[in-house]
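Entry:
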Amino acid sequence: MFKPTPPHLPANRIPGQHNRKSGAFWEWFRTAFRNRERRKMIQTLQGMDDRLLRDIGIERSDIPRVVDVFTDREWAVRPVSPDVEQSYRLRCDRAA
């Protein structure tokens, strides 16, 4: 009688479970992604005018500190698009 071929994964490993090396890779990837998103968010907020920043409750000097305390849920929110910012400026110019 033939023995069944051994499973392609080691016996002590559960399918779908990542080893430490791949876990470290994903942690590095998440950190790199968050850093990239952080830089993009700071750049976007720096591009807004002071009135718009005041409307959302932050000052220009507080931008890096505010971005550093974002949670994963807050990172899922997209920043204001240039179209929305443009329409805001037009409304403010008309009101003035």
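Helices lie at 20-46, 50-55, 63-68, 72-75, 82-95.
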